[in-house]
Amino acid sequence: MAKPTDAADAGASRSGPAVAIAGLHKWYGDFHVLRDINLEVARGERVVICGPSGGGKSTLLRCINRLEDWQRGRVVVDGIELTDDPKQIVAVRRDVGMVFQQFNLFPHLTVLENCTLAPIWVRHMPKKDAEDLAMTYLRRVRIPEQAHKYPARLSGGQQQRVAIARALCMSPNIMLFDEPTSSLDPEMVKEVLDTMEELASDGITMLVVSHEMGFARQVADRVIFMADGQIVEINEPKAFFAHPAHERTRLFLQQVLR
Amino acid sequence: MPSRHARRFVGIALQAALVVIVGGVAYAAFRNAAQNLADAHIVSGFAFWNNTAGFDISQALIDYSPSTSTFGRAFWVGLLNTLLAAGISLVLATVIGFAAGIAQLSRNWLVAHLAAGYVGLVRNVPLLLQLLFWYNSVLVSLPQLHGSMALPGGGILNNRGLFLPRPQVAPGFGYVVTAFVVCIAAVALIRIVIRRRQDRTGEPGHLLWFAAALIIAVPAVVFFAAGSPLSFSVPRMGRFNVEGGVEILPELAALVLALSIYTGAFIAEVVRAGVLAVSRGQTEAAQSLGLRSGTTLRLIVIPQAMRVIIPPLTSQYLNLIKNSSLAVAIGYPDLVQVFAGSVLNLTGQAVEVIAITMAVYLAVSLATSLVMNLYGYAIAVEER
Amino acid sequence: MTTAAKKTYRRETPAESLPPPRDRSGALGWLRQNLLASPLDMALTVLCLALIGWAVPPLVRFFVLDAAWSGADRAACLASPQHPEPGACWAFVRAWFGFFVYGFYPLVARWRVDLFFATLAFGIAWLAWLSAPRRDLGAVYFFIVLPVLAFALLSGAPRLGLITIPTELWGGILVTVVVATVGIVVSLPLGILLALARRSDLPAVRGLAVAFIEFVRGVPLITVLFMASVMLPLFVPERLSPDKLLRALIGVSLFASAYMAEVVRGGLAAIPRGQYEAARALGLPYWRMMALVVLPQALRITLPNIVNTFIGLFKDTTLVFAVGIFDFLRTVEAARADPHWVTPVTSVTGYAFAALFYFLCCYGMSRYARSVELRLARHRR
Description:
By secondary structure, chain A is of the alpha/beta class. Helix content of chain A is 36%, strand content 23%.
């Protein structure tokens, strides 16, 4: 994986936690959507966040790359504190890759162009280098032959894998996955989860919001259960699934694992 | 269920019957028309095209005189007037429409609602009413000849029209134009060079200011070097009229104002819908990759929005061109007013005149539809 | 190790829902977000407030505060020592109101026009209210009963004791409503037929439909009106020559049909193929399938667009001035030339009144279209 060379990232500390959230509160109007979130994610750690819909999981994830803002609390990503300062925000976003539930590939660009867009325009890479880099990652996600097709021609699973490759082309230290398989037909979920598993073994920090409990069991270092905008329980996967400590967690797991 | 052969037979019989009926009605209609026209001693045919016009036209972009010009010439004068009014209005309407459409999406509550108010008001009042308002209420309150307003820059404004200095070019002006064209070509070339360089080294170029400076500075230098080969014939107050300068009829001004403001509101809706059609996820994906908002707009949002905007935008352009025919209401000498109005009245040959008029608009509409279909096809090919 | 980094954690007490911080919520928060979010935003806000301050008070003064609401002639609306800046001359509108609504329709017979308006409003309400009972009967009433009734009322039915009133005497809102209504009554069925014809497999039928639709949509309405007005009398023998209003009605109806055809075609295209196939599988012949399965759905889907076309039609009624018909706008044009009422403010007042009328009608219709759209969207979830 190519290391970022930009000067703005030089200040990022390599020793602190990847993500540090302290006292985070967020309101949508009068609705208190995130309540007193305190969380630290270490470098290289894989964290899966699960919970009922509307519990604030996606909102929390999107706070980490400032797609959502908040009214109270601190969020520090890779040593850079996220405030209203646009420079900080861009610096963080260069370092954090995100994969969306709806893929959000750019339909008017080819797969290759989707992947080279950010390296060219944000990291100012020469076109050839960017394309080589993109092909490397397209090979990693096992769809190099689709490079010159438009996203509309690809299946859902292929599109999501392109989205993962696109995010990886920016060489992020942290990858955020917002329900990456929820929009996929069942037979395509496995290919994406396999790709994510391979990623996990590379040492990249991963925060995954997902309902895929099998993936959590297999890959996660910690599982976080969120409901009603608050963190209810955190545990290692084995303990989490075998002996959920909180009543709410038990209720949720009963409904989800049958 | 009748057999396939029976259905085909019925189908063919139906079509044959339809053709016979339509043909029969058309034939009867034309027989009647011929009879009625003959009774009224109106000739048929297009010979009138070369007859002397005998009526004046208040605005003619080409040479026209009532005593020597033909009806055919009048047709061209009217057509050019239509194109002039429609052309200016198209540009203005696009500017107004894009501004108002984007303003409606602003985060600023006041800006968004003021724009929405403009759109909502203008779209729900008939264009004719707006035209009459501008012409009869606003422009009529301009001063009479003897009280003409003098404008900064040498113009004169009164109820006969807006008189602006007429530019008069001397021979050296050709060099200035050449310099301008050369600069534009140079900028295009430089753009390509910068792109290539970016592909090679990754370094983006900052072309905008340089290009603007070049396009303005070089022709300016040539202009002065050639001895300022541009003078203006400034309008002066004469005894009975304004002399010199170029005259902009109040009718033209009213028509352009009304068309631009009216069509601008519809274009605003088209633009708003187009920008909204680009899902938020696109912007979020671009942002999460680290792209700044300017780049995101340029590379992601605008290309996708334009694809949604262009077909209905073309439709609005066509509507504007057709709506310019409302010129008859205020006496602006457009194609309908001159040809389907004056010429029709003078020759009495309604069928030919109206047919020609319709043919012109039809040609414009069909040509635009064709181009639109080609555009749609090209996009589809690209994205499938 | 902080709580945050612990490997395991269990929440002891639930975090309650707190109210949002004051400066970010409520009126102050709203102001900050929507008007003062950035320096550019603040500048824009100031600009907008300046614009409103410049434009609104004079308008309110003119149309309300300084306006003359009653009077017998122009004296009421002229500048005078008591009213150095006269406002809108609503007295003029009141004086001419009858003309604006009925045109030259004889005073004694105006009750017939009122009755027509009432029956029309009833018909529209019946069809427009989506939850109304027996709307199919409503359609029969609107498209069949009402035209006959309206013709008898407005034009006259001597055998019923209603004297004939020639269309030359009709004018004002009466004419506008008649033209618009006839337009919709004719253009909707005709548009449906044209749309079906355009989708037909028979090339002659399709060709004729396409030719008609593309021709009409490619030319301005004024030329169609000219054609109807000037050429129609030529194509029929002397004795059948239609009167001026009828010619305009024919022109407007044909014009609107072409646009309606495209709108209906859009609706038909939005029906999934499965509907057609299911109907065919049930053995329904073509017309039965169309009437029972496809058209009801297509019209429902495209109802907002139909209303939008009608709004356009309503505005287009103003163009009949070009063929000598006295629609509402033309009556205002005529009235403002009245020497008894000529003042500098008469024209503006007249236009403002006309604009108000058209705005209320069109805006009302567009709100209705929007509410239908929302209702349809809800049902489709």
